[in-house]
Design a protein that fits this description.
The protein has 138 residues and is α+β, with helices and mostly antiparallel strands. It has two helices and five strands; from the N terminus they run ααβββββ. A hairpin with a 2-residue loop joins strand 2 and strand 3.
Length: 138
């Protein structure tokens, strides 16, 4: 009988320590009440703004679906060249995939605090999505 109590006596500190460790871990992983602002990289911001520009450019003619990431983004200081593809939806069952190149410039040198603002960017040009290229080949 004494051996059982002795084993329980040895087990008691371990159980107490285990519960206090779990309580500390749970309190340490709680999120702060203010939501964290996600930071967008300048390259991804340039890609998103190019996609927004393309949607506005062909607003009444075509519908576009863009991938989450471009094929490539090339940056030289504040100039960006986006190489990507888009699914051009022409009708209910008609769509084609077309690649495009978008050249865009960030207007505020190396201060990337305003990359989310569309007015902080200037589109230089888009190629590959001209109406003559968006045709369904029979």
């Amino acid at each position: 009988m004494k051996k059982k109590y002795f084993a329980l006596l040895l087990l008691l500190p371990f159980l107490t320590l285990n519960k206090s460790t779990l309580a500390y871990a749970a309190s340490a992983t709680k999120t702060s009440p203010t939501p964290q602002k996600t930071t967008l990289s300048p390259k991804m911001a340039a890609f998103n703004h190019c996609n927004h520009y393309i949607k506005k450019l062909y607003l009444n003619k075509f519908t576009f679906e863009f991938p989450e990431r471009p094929k490539g983004v090339y940056q030289n200081k504040t100039n960006f060249i986006i190489n990507a593809s888009a699914k051009v939806i022409i009708g209910p069952n008609d769509f084609i995939n077309r690649g495009y190149i978008c050249r865009i410039r960030y207007l505020f040198k190396n201060n990337y605090k305003r990359i989310d603002n569309i007015n902080s960017w200037s589109i230089i040009g888009v190629s590959g999505l001209e109406e003559s290229f968006i045709t369904i080949d029979d």
